[in-house]
Amino acid sequence: MAYILVSGRDGQLGNELKDLASKQNFEFVLTDVNDLDITDENALKEAFGKYKPAYFINCAAYTAVDKAETNKEIANKINAEAVGYIARQCQQHNTMLIHISTDYVFDGKSTQPYKEDDKADPVNYYGYTKWLGEKLALENNPATIIIRTSWVYSSYGANFVKTMLRLMSERKEINVVNDQFGSPTYAKDLAEVIMYIVNREPSTVNEPRSLNDIYHFSNEGNISWYDFAVAIRDIKQLDCVVHPIPTIAYPTPAKRPAYSVFDKTKIVSTFNIKLKDWKDSLRECLQFL
């Protein structure tokens, strides 16, 4: 049975992949930093030599967007340098790399959904490191699929949905920005799409790998963080007033893109998948919470 090596096991996407692992015709090796430090090239060489994986799914990332503005060295090491290390090992072992990236590679100045070949121009250091990671992945391993995603949430880990649930249970009123627009992504839906791609993509040495490229994925919809918060409140029938505020009223160390909606035509047409509406996926997640 072929191996799939996964980094970032304890994150949102890693946990969702863990839930799907028993249903797949692969042997999963799910790792986190204590099992496999992706910034340690020797550790990666050892892991690749041991398992010779057919796929490496890189869910690991430094995702503290504001802290990345000051912790630049560690953010760059995890989000960029380590991706280059992984990609080199993938190239040497004929491993398909599936690397998760972000909407933050764009500047947010568009008024139309971003396509995969639109110019990257990150507005914060986190986005810059993720963009650099994409480059290093493609430069070091042609057999790479990059999936950019946005506004990820799950029943696992820390995320906007769980923060809103907590705040709404503690307070009678909260403020949420209403001038940043994007599309939420339920990590469970992303995990299912990744496994669908894996099961479609040839995994043996002699078969061509023609699907390597950059793809955009999220649930369907174009909403603000305020819209997202109101939907969470209404679905859970919570007694909390949500006030819309402009970004300028909620300053953060790292600038956020004002618009990060994706055009997902490419992933839909290439893999013949159907996207779920953001509110349907949100309802599903909230049932677990």
- Taking pLDDT < 50 over at least 5 consecutive residues as the criterion, the unreliable ranges are 203-208
% residues in beta strands: 15-25%
Radius of gyration: 19 Å
Order of neighbouring strands in the sheet with most strands: 2-1-3-4-5-10
CATH topology: Rossmann fold
> What is the arithmetic mean of pLDDT?
95
Q: Sheet with the most strands?
A: 6 strands, parallel
Number of helices: 9
What is the CATH C level class, in words?
Alpha Beta
End-to-end Cα distance, whole Å, is: 35 Å
- As a percent range, the share of helical residues equals 25-40%
Q: How would you classify the quaternary structure?
A: single chain
Instruction: Give, in order, the helices and strands.
Output: EHEHEHEHEEHEEEHEEHEHH
CATH architecture descriptor name: 3-Layer(aba) Sandwich
**Globular, elongated, flat, extended or rod-shaped: what is the shape?**
globular
> In CATH, what is the homologous superfamily?
NAD(P)-binding Rossmann-like Domain
Number of domains: 1
Number of strands: 12
